[in-house]
Amino acid sequence: KLGLTQVSEVSELEKMCKEVVDASPNEVAQVKAGRERVMKHFVGEIMKRTKGKAAGPVVTEILKRLIFESK
User: What is the pTM of this model?
Assistant: First the structure.
């Protein structure tokens, strides 16, 4: 085995995504204002935490939901 398994456990990813979103209010405001490129900041943080093993599309969907549902 090469250790190339993806982290796609949704509850685990949601927890990490929530931590990253909660820690970055300025970036959340930028994404809400239409600066989509800032989303890469969040995805990058999750990839760092999972050592690149997170499923990118899943992470992006979770992040969008958390950001746009937050106040």
Answer: 0.84
